[in-house]
Design a protein that fits this description.
The chain contains four helices and 19 strands. With about 350 residues, it is an alpha+beta fold. It is extended.
């Protein structure tokens, strides 16, 4: 680790570099000027040079995603675009809706006109997040299938209340009387809350808005079928972290989130085991653990010897009422008596 040092300085962008990604090991960068650059990873140390490929987006690029199933690149800024890097061409351009999303996923309400700051792809869906909203498209039809508004969770409402508490005290309004200014302020705060991030796979989408301690999990399985169920845009699960969430990432069933400060929070979506763990203590002798007839443990051995009815030390009888014969050479309960 002490040998690590900067191998190359890549200089081409006219604006600030806003996003980077790795596609099959190829470094990709995107700048505020709207250019997407591919660089040669195996160039000699210290070598400069121009990128091996440049693509011009329709506007500033703020986020990149290289995890699409087909190995394509997705960029987001004022809009969302998909790129075939092997053919160096644009595959699709997804138009953002004019508004935000209400609680039923309608893409005609609230928060439009702002650029996207995060993007993710999974299956046939692409999701991009901006202030107060996450928009989803089906890339097979380039159609917007819905939008998710910033969840007005209890944590967000509390943050909004704390933010506007001084103004409420100055206005002299009480918590019980009249229209509460905090409710309107909370709605406005949710509409402009920055999107912390977005990620999705074949069944779920995770997003968060700041400043908040919560992450929302949405069930997307009905979107791929073309007939979204009612209320799909409401969170199926809300994860509450001990502190404000600044970033997150999940892989399969494990999610990790960075928090304001120096700690991370970890969750698992895996179903807990239905069988409780076996108590750890002194082990039984093999002949008792396996039972006299080869199975069942201590309780099973008792049932095997008592025939399930608590009959002391009798062996279990077969259907004819006779005890099973002991095989020759096997364990015997009593030694054979020698007679003349």
């Amino acid at each position: 680790m002490d040998e690590l040092r900067c191998a190359r300085a890549l200089r081409h962008h006219a604006g600030a570099v806003a996003a980077v990604a790795l596609l099959h090991g190829v470094p990709i960068s995107a700048g505020e000027e709207g250019e997407i650059c591919l660089w040669e990873a195996g160039a000699a140390a210290g070598a400069g040079g121009a990128p091996i490929l440049t693509l011009a987006a329709d506007g500033p690029v703020a986020a990149l995603d290289a995890s699409s199933p087909g190995g394509h690149l997705v960029s987001a800024g004022w809009g969302v675009e998909g790129w075939d890097m092997a053919a160096a061409q644009r595959l699709f351009s997804l138009v953002p809706p004019a508004g935000g999303g209400d609680e039923d996923g309608d893409a005609s309400a609230g928060g439009g006109g702002l650029g996207f700051n995060c993007v993710a792809s999974g299956g046939s869906l692409v999701a991009a997040g901006r202030a107060g909203q996450v928009v989803l498209w089906d890339v097979r039809t380039s159609r917007c299938v819905g939008a998710i508004a910033a969840a007005a969770s209890g944590d967000a409402a509390a943050a909004a209340a704390a933010t506007h508490e001084p103004s409420k005290r100055r206005s002299g309004s009480s918590e019980e009387g009249g229209a509460s200014p905090v409710a309107g302020a909370g709605s406005a705060a949710n509409a402009l809350a920055p999107c912390v991030g977005v990620q999705l796979d074949d069944w779920k989408l995770v997003s968060g808005w700041g400043p908040s301690r919560s992450l929302a999990v949405y069930d997307l399985r009905s979107l791929s079928g073309g007939a979204p169920r009612a209320g799909w845009a409401r969170p199926a699960l809300e994860l509450l972290a001990p502190a404000r969430v600044t970033c997150f990432r999940f892989h399969e069933q494990v999610l990790i989130a960075g928090q304001k400060g120096a700690e991370c929070a970890l969750w698992s979506f895996g179903a807990p085991s239905s069988a409780p763990p076996e108590p750890r203590g002194p082990s039984l002798p093999p002949h008792l653990a396996a039972g006299p007839d080869g199975g069942g443990g201590a309780d099973g051995g008792a049932e095997g010897w008592a025939g399930g009815g608590g009959g002391g030390g009798r062996r279990r009888k077969d259907k004819k009422g006779k005890p099973p014969a002991v095989p020759k050479g096997g364990d015997r309960r009593y030694p054979k008596r020698r007679t003349r």
